[in-house]
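Hey team,

Filing this mostly as a record. A colleague (T.K.) asked me to run one chain through the structure pipeline before their review meeting, and I want the input and output archived in the tracker in case anyone asks later how it was produced. No errors, nothing strange. Just documentation.

Input sequence:
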Amino acid sequence: MAAGKSPKARALVLRPVELDSRRSPRPHCNCGAVPVDATKRGLIWGLVGCAWAISACRTGLEVVSDMDDAATARADGGDGADGSVASDASTSTDSGTLSPADPRLLRSWVIAEPRATPGPLNGAQMAYHPTSERTIIYGGERGRNGERSDEMWAYDGTDWTRICSACPPGPRISASLAYDSVRDRIILFGGITTGTDFSADLWEWDGDRWERQLPDGIPPAPRQSTYVAFDEARARLVVFGGHSIDGMLRDVHEYDGTRWINPSVSGEMPRARSGGRNQALYDPRMEQVVVYGGIDASDTYLDDMWAWDGNGWTELCTACTGRARVASGFAYDVDTGRYLIVGGWDGSDEIAGTLGYLGTTPATVLDGALPLQRDSMGIAYSAHDRTIVIHGGDGASCGGTCADTMVYQILEQ
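Output structure:
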């Protein structure tokens, strides 16, 4: 190992299985390549990895034990429909990003092996905190029994660390989390606190402690599953839509650090919707907030994408992926300028795989199989190691609520 270079966290990598058409369409599933060492931690990881191996195998995947094997698997080619990496047609991007087709930016999902973990969570929220170079996760539901978390954890790319339990914002699910890059704050808004109580409270974490904010102006109505992102160009937190006690919403509110602002909206706008707790992002190229998908007041699942510039909305696409969904992960890949769409729920099934949107439809299949089927996961782009991190979610692939941390990392890292 080169001097000064820290070792990578061990991880399991999944890749598609090439099945022999002369054999059964389902291969014999065992723990195969899962690495297990003699330590207690290694034994526990081996058991967890074994369960993953069998689950993955039954979905048409196999587990490989290191990144070199994964890279070899990805180099075999393919158009992405079988789970292999696909590239967009674009060969150049703005804002200093490399082309998505650049081989230096090929990514693969790996299962992280932290020593501690937030555990099974769905409906939790994640945001990246650049000052500490950690990804923050807050709240969520522990399993399907309705127990809500009031914990906050931070992931540094190797391990999770619990920052607080019984954190002041209190237990909640379906809240929204965003990073204010101007004031260096993590902002939490809304969600469901106890029972079916919807919230409109606003909290800020300064890297040390949580503090409730009581801004001037007219606040949004209490709501959950809201579309929230921080507009860096205008230094405002943008809040759109969500689900209130009276139904779906389509209003826009902005928070500038001291007061709530209720902008007047002209022209076309997205229909009322919810399910967007992880389905909003900020695009620094356009300097606009982008929202994707969700479910409307008539229980119709949506596959459209809209951009907000502070004055009005622009529809970017109507059938963006070809499969309408709610509760998917939605993140901006700084390296390629792509919007990543991960998993979700289409009204009948959880969705597997990862898509990339770069201005053309349908979105490109980057990985047709991973992550395994799930919705309601936490997701964030981690700038210091150029990865996309997800944790938890809800899906049959996990037997209920997922407890894993997965990292979408560049193969050459």
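Quick notes for T.K.: The first strand starts at residue 11 and ends at 16. The radius of gyration is 21 Å.
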